[in-house]
Known about the structure:
By secondary structure, this protein is mainly alpha-helical. The chain has 18 helices and six strands. The protein has helices spanning 36-40, 76-82, 85-94, 100-111, 118-123, 133-143, 157-182, 196-205, 216-229, 236-245, 251-262, 270-281, 287-295, 316-331, 337-351, 353-357, 364-374, 382-402; strands at 5-10, 15-22, 30-31, 60-63, 68-71, 74-75. The strands form two sheets. The chain has a three-stranded antiparallel sheet with strand order 1-2-3. Residues 266-268, 270, 294, 302-309, 358, 360, 363-365 line the site of acetyl coenzyme *A. Acetyl coenzyme *A (ACO) is lined by residues 266-268, 270, 294, 302-309, 358, 360, 363-365.
Amino acid sequence: xxxxxxxxxxxxxxxxxxxxxxxxxxxxxxxxxxxxxxxxxxxxxxxxxxxxxxxxxxxxxxxxxxxxxxxxxxxxxxxxxxxxxxxxxxxxxxxxxxxxxxxxxxxxxxxxxxxxxxxxxxxxxxxxxxxxxxxxxxxxxxxxxxxxxxxxxxxxxxxxxxxxxxxxxxxxxxxxxxxxxxxxxxxxxxxxxxxxxxxxxxxxxxxxxxxxxxxxxxxxxxxxxxxxxxxxxxxxxxxxxxxxxxxxxxxxxxxxxxxxxxxxxxxxxxxxxxxxxxxxxxxxxxxxxxxxxxxxxxxxxxxxxxxxxxxxxxxxxxxxxxxxxxxxxxxxxxxxxxxxxxxxxxxxxxxxxxxxxxxxxxxxxxxxxxxxxxxxxxxxxxxxxxxxxxxxxxxxxxxxxxxxxxxxxxxxxxxxxxxxxxxxxxxxxx
Length: 430
Ligand code: ACO
């Protein structure tokens, strides 16, 4: 808290509120409107939280104008170059990079919580064969609360940590099981001699009849994608996790709610939507028509993978992933015509005044789907992949929330626009 204040005065009533300024270590300051309603009779209206900070947080910093993304102070570019997903998960949760012994213990703990209970495995049989894997993941993650009563006491820091580790460990197992069930293949157990991403790829693609040949390029690419998607401060799904968390709900319920929020096409569902859009456009020659359609507000069509609520210059993750996209496709020997469509679309939109004026740039999801496709991951699984990575951020925020002493239940206000008070009318008089 700084000693500055912002004074808001209602000229009509001459009532004022002196609102304390709250400044973080970086970024724009805010003023605390907690007393506004009591002092002036007003509260604030901010749909979409365009100007409202709902919490203080030390996990991730974004400067949307400068294209900066820091996890615990470390630039995403440096983490992408030097770190790995599990180390990043440790960093997000604990606030510091681990020493070698700390990392070894964390990796051991995650590795030894990868199994699903056998009865949870059977749970998948209850779904229709063509269920969307996000639906199965959301249900399976929520159901973990029914299995792990020893990590439901959210007042106990050790139980909170255990739940966080379980979620990071089991997400790939659940995700791969959802995929395998949807294609009618037997669900695989996690191989704990493999690293996090290789283990996931093994559970996804291994068949009982022959040994799986896995390219190290695939696991490396996945690891980098997971780093880039691990956290993004108070985005819709993380805010959902925090809102549900503010009620004291268990961590599995909170993360299941986060998965639900991530599913929407305006959020994590965009990577799936990008691939569908590129396939619909079909070839580079049809890009111009698609751009025109996206500019026409009556068409109901937007360029998926373009624009971002916070990044109005460029998405630093998109810069990293764009470069990686070409490299991975080259190394895996994939020649994907959709990449040509993507490149043409990117160039057309970046030159078009509509997109330039509105600062609509390709976001991280514009490229991630193309890489997932090259790795053999089916389109319906793209948002699930995002959910695996984002679990690290969700649990980091959930843990932080429960370490905050003055935490309150999240309860937004509203501007009521319905009917004024009126009397009930009997059915025969309506
Ligand atoms: N294609 C065409 N026009 C667009 C697009 C787009 N992708 N995105 C925004 N616009 C236009 C809007 O129509 C609006 O135009 P107007 O000023 O003439 O009315 C203007 O740009 C601002 O758009 P808003 O919707 O107000 O921007 P907001 O910050 O609320 O939305 C969002 C951001 C949801 C990401 C939006 O850009 C969008 O829908 N993009 C496509 C979906 C997508 O890629 N989502 C992934 C986000 S990243 C992530 O979750 C990891």
